[in-house]
Amino acid sequence: MTALSSRYVPLLLASLLLLMIPIARAGFGVRRVDDCVDPKALLELADLPATQSLAERYEKYDADVMQWTVAELDAAERGVQLKGALVRSFRPIDLYTRPPKVLLGKFEAGERHVERVEVAGQVLPIQTIHDNANGKNAMASYLFVYDGEPVEHPAFAQLSAAPGLVWQGTRPLSLLAVAGVVAPQKRELARAKAREWLVAAYLRHRAACSP
Questions:
Q1: Cα(84)–Cα(71) distance, rounded to whole angstroms?
Q2: Residues 6+ apart with CB under 8 A from 207
Q3: Residue 12: helix, strand or coil by DSSP?
Q4: Rounded to whole angstroms, what are the CA distances from 71 to 45, 101, 175?
Q5: pLDDT over threshold 70, residue 174
Q6: Angle between helices 9-27 and 154-168 in degrees, nearest 10
Q7: What is the pLDDT of residue 184?
Q8: pLDDT digits over 2-45, tens only?
Q9: What's the domain range around 156?
Q10: Which residues are CB-contacts of 27 (< 8 A; sequence separation ≥ 6)?
Q11: Which of 1, 57, 140, 183 is 20 to 30 A from 131 via CA?
Q12: How many domains does the chain have?
């Protein structure tokens, strides 16, 4: 390691310590603050585009996970089988390290895209990744919302908020996701369907949490 690179070690350590504050506070049972004005409204997703049915994954609930709603979406056409999800948790590292796992289980991330969609004065960084390993042809599109704002990198959002969370308590991370099996030739269609559902889910989230 050169003398130049060593100059950044204190800054890196300080950043890691700040990032650990909200994680540690969530893990040791300290005060949690739900920043959503009407969280029950987030359970009412049946009218979102293409939603056929909803199910609460109560087996996923624990002291940190406060919502895990899965929506069955109608098949746009053959080769596109999608589900939607809205998950809220005070243990955000589980969500932002492997977002597709919420709906797909094992997932080998490959090609990745970020589409920035302007909605109601906000820019939504919708991320999409594909898993083509062993012919799996899986796709996951997702959006994070933290402290009422759409964010691309939840860890960085936590880091910037960490000093205030020491006194104000931790806040949950929301993951909005659409994922499923998508034939390669149907990717554009699937991404459009996912975008439509994610935008509607975000607007529902905003109305319920930040009216």
A1: 5
A2: 41
A3: helix
A4: 8, 15, 14
A5: yes
A6: 60
A7: 86
A8: 444 555 555 555 555 555 555 555 445 557 888 899 999 999 99
A9: 3-209
A10: 91
A11: 57
A12: 1
Q: For residue 62, is pLDDT > 50?
A: yes
Dihedral angle sign, alpha carbons of residues 119, 50, 194, 72: positive
At 155, list the tokens.
Answer: 């860890």
What is residue 22's predicted lDDT score, i.e. its pLDDT? 52
How does 165-200 read in b/e, with b if 16+ C-beta sit within 10 Å?
Answer: beeebbbbbbbbbbbbbbeeebbeebbebbbebbbb
In the prediction, which pLDDT does 125 show? 97
CB 31 within 8 A of CB 51: no
Tell me the torsion sign for CA atoms 119, 147, 177, 37: negative
Task: Say which residue, 78 or 176, is predicted with more confidence.
Answer: 176
Render pLDDT for 118-166 as a digit per residue (tens, 0 to 9).
998 999 999 999 887 766 788 999 999 998 899 998 888 777 766 666 6
Count CB neighbours of 75 within 10 A.
14
DSSP structure class, residue 41: G
CA distances from 61 to 58, 64, 89, 158 (A): 5, 7, 9, 22
Cα(129)–Cα(110) distance, integer angstroms: 6
